[in-house]
Amino acid sequence: MAYKGGKGKKNRQVEGDEVIRVPLPDRSQGQLFGVIEQALGAGWMDVRCEDGKIRRCRIPGKLRRRMWMRVGDVVIVQPWPVQTDERGDIVYRYTRTQVDWLLRKGKISQDFLTGGELLF
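The line above is the sequence of Translation initiation factor 1A; the predicted structure tokens follow.
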């Protein structure tokens, strides 16, 4: 299924016959799902990632000015190339309806959101 580029269609992916409007982590770049554990101030957060590590992540300026991030929000984390296991950037924050969609499709589990076991 092909589509012509246009305004607002950059986040679409095709999975089978269904068009996905929810951005997913780009595994080729090492991106991961994460849940914000603690707000540290000055644009920094402690994020529990799906691989079990807690990374200190910063919120880039374009996201910091555009949306609020709170403890418990589901985000996409891009680990840094240097301190891969310790630091990262928050690339995207999911809305409540997007989190519900991720749960329905099995992309994340309820245990992951509540702080229990990891994905899958």
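Note on the example: The beta strands are 13-15, 18-20, 32-41, 44-49, 54-58, 74-79, 87-93. Residues 25 and 31 are 5 Å apart (CA to CA).
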